[in-house]
């Protein structure tokens, strides 16, 4: 079900899932994403909150710990599959592009 | 008593008008007013005129009954705080934030997700009006139309009817404007364009559109109160007074709820209780009006009449004693407008919108005659009037009686 809902991941989604390969506190994700993408991708708080909720409901991520209001999240097995599938898809995109564009650039 | 350092304004806004509110708050900051909290009104405190930035966001898990942030909302605020946004206040599920410094992360949001949240919020905000009040008013309108005679001949009934139509039209305009906005935004999203929120100027137009009928309604209401007092119709005057009192109590109570910061459930219960009360009073008004206006002064005096008229139509009721000594009631209804005449005939012949008449031949009248067996009334369209009288068998009426009824018309 998760696969169908997130057939192609949006850029912020992809980065949020990347950060959650290691356990991460929900509110820290925003900084992590900015860090990984060198400031290119920014996830707003409203988006992140809704996204985490959506991911959790689709069993793409899970809550690992909850201290007070601080919640930690980690990607699930099906989430990993999803992320890897997206990664492979992106690689195919770049390699296909490479074949044609190498001569041009 | 008015504190020069504080200001309160009344701003009614909807979930898809968040950007207009943001614009408004930023303009207020330029004028030297900073938002402190919202409690029915927006409360501002005086500051040095400056540029402030605001963010007005709809929280998907919130409820219109939230007087204070719930635990879910606090979680949500943590994300904002982490990104450098400080929570100012909330009004239901709409939350207002200010950035801590100039270079805070913008509240960039997934447009598709945001539109979904706003859709849900709009339904939560207006669902009850749209899906409960609207059908209820249609029902009340249908009930009142059954008594078309009183509606057109009695100014108070007519006013209440017009009032209802205005309110109904206002709600329809609301629904249509939301649907067109929603369709337009979906199309924009498909083309990869960002959502276009209702801007400040179009929000003003919308608010005006909403306040015009509200203003007219208040005027009509007050006029009805004065009118009924002049006519010594204390029943109606007290009904109007009661409903105005109820409106005041609802207003004070909603203020009280927000001040006391009641929980979501308590707020819901209290609000629904009052809404039900208001609906109950509304229905009572309708029935009282119907009952009051349907009872004509009844006397035993030969030919005694009671009548009422408006610019639309007039009705006159006579009670008189027939040749054989029985008493009979006769009513004359007349309108200059064919449409009103036709509607009147339809409403009389179709109680509860069911056809209930048969045409009969009464040669002595030389006019179109119909008979409704369920209430033993005979209707005759005679000389521009619709005349009805009670008769078990209209053909048995003495010709001298018919002549007397005909004489009433002249």
Largest sheet of chain B: 7 strands, antiparallel
What's the pLDDT, averaged over the residues of chain A? 86
Oligomer: heterodimer
Number of strands of chain B: 13
Shape of chain A: elongated
Strand order of the largest sheet of chain B: 7-8-9-13-12-11-10
In percent, how helical is the residue content of chain A? 55-70%
Range of strand content of chain A: 5-15%
Q: Number of helix segments of chain A? A: 5
Provide the spatial order of strands within the biggest beta sheet of chain A. 1-3-2
Instruction: Name the shape of chain B in a single word.
Output: elongated
Sheet-strand content of chain B, in percent, reads 15-25%
- Determine the structural class of chain B based on helices, strands and strand pairing: alpha+beta
Which pair has the most extensive contact?
A-B, 23 and 23 residues
Helix content of chain B: 40-55%
Parts with pLDDT < 50 across at least 5 consecutive residues of chain A = none
Calculate the mean pLDDT score of chain B and round it: 81
Largest sheet of chain A: 3 strands, antiparallel
DSSP E strands of chain A, number: 3
The H/E string of chain A reads HHEHHEEH
First-last Cα distance of chain A? 41 Å
Structural features, described:
The complex is a heterodimer of chains A (105) and B (410). Chain A is built from five helices and three strands. Chain A has 105 residues and is an alpha+beta fold. Chain A is elongated, with a radius of gyration of 15 Å. In chain A, helix 2 (11-19) crosses helix 3. Chain B is α+β, with helices and mostly antiparallel strands and 410 residues long. Helix content of chain B is 52%, strand content 19%. The relative contact order of chain B is 0.08. The interface between A and B is medium-sized, with 23 and 23 residues.
